[in-house]
Amino acid sequence: MTFGHHQGGDGPTLVAASVSGLCPRCGARTLFSGAVALADACRGCGLDYRQFNVGDGPAAFLILIIGAIIAGAAIWLELGLAPPFWVHSIWLPLLIGMTLLGLRLGKAALLVQEYRTGPREGRLRP
């Protein structure tokens, strides 16, 4: 087994695809067309990414989780060190950066998982 591919050799691993923005079919670095915007299709193999319903599923969880982390860190910093007020200006860029990175990773992971399991609506077994 080589690094970055799962055992079948038919595409990158979930981690490699998510971190590097790789096409789940061919492994080309074509998943994103912008910072967090998914491309319409892979320029390498032609896989249509629009067929996958990734949406903004990761966004709500990221805002809650990252917001709690940033708020906790800001409170800890204020109560523990009592720095000048301007020191707290670090939180906004940190919040934005963590959210963008998390959105990229989350969207890529959801798309790769949906590719592997097949894009279809959920059904309950009778």
From TrEMBL:
The keyword Transmembrane applies. The keyword Membrane applies. InterPro entries: DUF983 (IPR009325). The chain crosses the membrane at residues 59-79, 85-106. It holds the Pfam family DUF983. Keywords: Membrane, Transmembrane, Transmembrane helix. This is Uncharacterized protein (DUF983 family). It comes from Sphingomicrobium lutaoense.
